[in-house]
Write a structure and sequence with these properties.
By secondary structure, the chain is of the alpha/beta class. It contains 15 helices and 20 strands. It comes from Novosphingobium aquae.
Length: about 450
């Protein structure tokens, strides 16, 4: 992405190319106001007002843009995103109204991940003007958080292991003068035994750790944000097929969401006492890898029989959720690329949301719809918990009947959240398999903006 702080600027009447937004219904009336040459230009480009379609129209010595949207009076985040991708570098202004939510898509549409390219594209910035000056900082912050998620997820596992997640957390903690604490080595084995066991087979450079950030006035409501940081998931001894490993650099997508949400909370000075926790591991194969049939100790004192080493994310989250619960937070939100079952049910675009309280689910779902970051609620159906029974331990980490995989994983996590704590769990894909305007193929923030909007509504 170009310097994001320059892509949205206050409109002070400076010279800019006009963008006219029309729908299929309003386009005929708009076209009547044009001269014959301009109508001919639209016809030559076969523009009829369809969504995401656009046309360049001559206007004396210059030109303007016409673009189709669903409803010019109710813009979505994405309706101007394609323009940000395809228009020439320059400064633009929406005619007849403000860009509103479309400012986010304008920023998001200019994102690119070119860290490994020898010839990165240099197309120059496309700047959008707005008179809503007070909205600029907020949309820049959301775009920066989304970019952070994308960058972290897109980076290959060799360059984005537990140590690199720790480095990112240190940078953000330093920026906002937050406290940071990292537990690893012998202390990790004592304090977070499941995190240690899942990650102990990785190389020394990718050694497991628990990363914690705390920030804010201790008198404010305590909010914990937890993210699954499995930086690569081979499946362990229950090894994945090669096709199943191709995207496993993204298995730390939950951690990326947690770090980005923490950045938003601290950057805005939200009046909460933030506690962010990221258990960072690589689920590798080696002689000391944990095994099917092993029984793991946990921080919560719950013994866990291993039915499948590829159900490792819930193990590291269990220790993190237990630690978060010890401080009796008012709310815990966790993010995890947890189950294929959620993707089978909801596809890549919709995170599965599970909560203990209906009001929390309703607030998150409404915030998602309002901010074009939708989720879909799945149940924490208590009777399914019996499928996690173990003959020799308190609980098994995997069930075998193949039913309700996302909900059963949620019920496993529920065992490690303190009694009476308001808790929300996002099973997110953190990846976009096909590009859409403003949403390139690759790492993606899904559930981030919904959570941020809900937190702002709840604590401001």
């Amino acid at each position: 992405m170009s310097d994001k702080n320059s892509l949205i600027q206050p409109d002070r009447g400076q010279k800019a190319t006009a963008i006219h937004l029309v729908s299929k219904d309003t386009f005929p009336a708009f076209a009547k106001g044009l001269n014959a040459a301009q109508r001919a230009a639209l016809a030559a480009q076969k523009f009829e007002g369809d969504g995401y379609a656009y046309a360049i129209v001559p206007d004396g010595d210059h030109w303007f843009v016409v673009s189709g949207v669903a409803n010019p009076d109710d813009l979505s985040s994405w309706c101007m995103a394609k323009l940000a991708e395809v228009l020439p570098a320059g400064t633009y202004r929406r005619e007849g109204g403000e860009p509103g939510k479309a400012m986010f898509g304008w920023l998001s549409g200019q994102y690119s991940f070119d860290r490994y390219r020898s010839d990165p594209k240099e197309e120059g910035p496309r700047i959008l003007l707005t008179k809503s000056v007070k909205a600029i900082d907020a949309v820049l912050a959301e775009a920066a958080a989304t970019e952070l998620v994308r960058d972290l997820v897109n980076t290959p596992a060799e360059d984005m292991g537990p140590a690199e997640l720790e480095t990112t957390a240190h940078q953000i903690a330093k920026q906002y003068r937050a406290e940071i604490h990292v537990t690893k080595g012998d202390a990790l084995e004592r304090e977070f035994p499941m995190v240690h066991m899942v990650g102990r087979a990785a190389s020394r450079s990718h050694a497991p750790r628990m990363i914690e950030i705390e920030c804010g006035d201790p008198k404010h409501p305590r909010v914990a944000i937890v993210g699954k940081g499995v930086c690569f998931d081979s499946g362990g001894l229950d090894i994945k097929p090669s096709a199943g490993m191709l995207l496993m650099k993204k298995d730390m997508g939950g951690a990326a969401h947690a770090i980005a949400l923490a950045q938003l909370i601290m950057g805005a000075g939200l009046p909460v006492r933030l506690h962010m926790l990221v258990p960072a591991v690589e689920n590798a194969v080696a002689g000391n890898a944990f095994r099917p049939g092993d029984v793991l100790r946990s921080r919560a004192g719950i013994s866990v029989e291993i039915g499948n080493t590829d159900a490792e994310g819930r193990l590291v989250l269990g220790d993190a959720l237990a630690k978060a619960s010890e401080s009796s937070p008012e709310l815990i939100i966790d993010f995890a690329t947890l189950t294929g079952a959620a993707r089978g049910a909801l596809g890549p675009d919709l995170p599965a949301l599970m909560t203990r309280q209906d009001a929390t689910a309703e607030a998150l779902l409404a915030a998602g719809i309002e901010n074009d970051d939708p989720a879909w609620r799945l149940p924490l159906h208590k009777p399914y918990a019996e499928w996690l029974k173990s003959d020799i331990a308190d609980i098994n980490n995997s069930h075998t009947n193949g039913f309700a995989g996302a909900s059963v994983a949620g019920l496993f996590l529920d065992r490690f959240v303190g009694e009476g704590i308001d808790w929300a769990h996002f099973d997110t894909f953190a990846w976009r398999p096909v590009s859409k305007p403003g949403r390139p193929k690759g790492g993606e923030a899904l559930g981030l903006r919904a959570s941020w909007a809900m937190l702002q509504g709840r604590y401001t």
